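Hi R.,

As promised on Friday, here is the backbone we talked about, encoded as structure tokens. Could you run it through your design pipeline when you get a chance and send me back a sequence?
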């Protein structure tokens, strides 16, 4: 399990870090969308944090939660497919990390 559905609904973004894998899930209307947490521009986690216990997803989206943003150089990405629509890596994609909702949980598939 990545997180509970309730946790994703509450925050809109949940970070996941385990055994060196960095990922994150955003809520796209009523769908969870998962991506590897590595900006196409530099390969760094979008939120800037590298520590395993740095799980604050507050800076992974705009305030309106309409697009994903990278805190390093402000690249912006569509939630539905990870396409970069602005910034230094425009046209590139975040790497998809397949996830889905199963009842009260969000899980990898
Ligand atoms: S590292 Fe993400 S925009 Fe530069």
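Update: got your reply. Pasting your designed sequence below so it's all in one thread:
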């Amino acid at each position: 399990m990545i997180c509970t559905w309730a946790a994703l609904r509450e925050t809109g973004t949940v970070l996941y870090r385990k055994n060196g894998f960095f990922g994150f899930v955003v809520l796209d209307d009523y769908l969870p969308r998962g991506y590897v947490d590595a900006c196409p521009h530099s390969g760094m986690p979008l939120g800037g944090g590298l520590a395993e216990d740095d799980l604050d997803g507050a800076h992974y989206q705009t305030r309106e939660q309409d697009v994903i943003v990278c805190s390093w150089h402000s690249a912006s990405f569509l939630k539905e497919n990870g396409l970069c629509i602005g910034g230094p890596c425009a046209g590139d994609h975040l790497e998809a990390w397949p996830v889905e909702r199963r009842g009260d949980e969000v899980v990898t598939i």
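One thing I noticed while checking it: The chain has one helix and nine strands.

Thanks again,
M.
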